Amino acid sequence: IDIGFLEHIPSEKCKNCFNGNLSKILEEPNFKIFISFSVPDSIWSTLSKDLVTVGGTFVLIGLPNNSFSELSEKIFKLKSKGVDAQIQVDPIAFRKYEVAEVPTFVVSDSEKYDKVSGAISVEYALNYLSEKGEIPFSKSLKRKL
User: Strand runs (DSSP E) across the chain, as ranges?
Assistant: First the structure.
């Protein structure tokens, strides 16, 4: 195998590259709120404040009308209304956690997860999950609020 092309690759480090421990990030327990654009902006804003505090993420099932530009417009509108939490698109997570309605609150670790759905606050969700769930991480998230 000819690997001579390697000598043409710059040796200086990438300035915008991730240089943390990705395996640690993937193994850490996490908190997600599965949501859609059908949920009123005011609820997004309210949930976002607590989601930022506990370090969670909003999750969408897909792109509105299969359009990145429409997604961008909707996110920009939400950001202008104070939604500062991270937002990701992850249809696989919707299947993995068997999310059938939004909002659904999920606390997970590398092996299992707890979830609760409904028009509830982050505080209520974490109280419920820390009392009824199996993942102790819910209690530490609850203390952050």
Answer: 30-34, 57-60, 86-89, 104-108, 113-117
Burial of 60 (0-12, 13-18, 19+ CB in 10 A): buried
CA distance 71 to 58: 14
Give SS3 for 81: coil
* 3-class DSSP state of 79: helix
Whole-angstrom Cα distance, residue 111 to residue 101? 23
Residue 120: exposure state from Cβ atoms within 10 A (0-12, 13-18, ≥19)? middle
How far is the C-alpha of 3 from the C-alpha of 26, rounded, in Å? Answer: 32
d(CA 42, CA 77): 12
3 state DSSP class of 58: strand
Averages of pLDDT over runs of 10 residues in the chain (145 residues) are 45 51 50 96 96 95 95 96 95 95 94 94 96 90 89
Mention every residue, 6+ apart, whose C-beta is less than 8 A from residue 63. 70, 71, 89
Are 54 and 137 spatial neighbours (Cβ–Cβ below 8 Å)? no
d(CA 82, CA 79): 5
pTM given for the model: 0.79
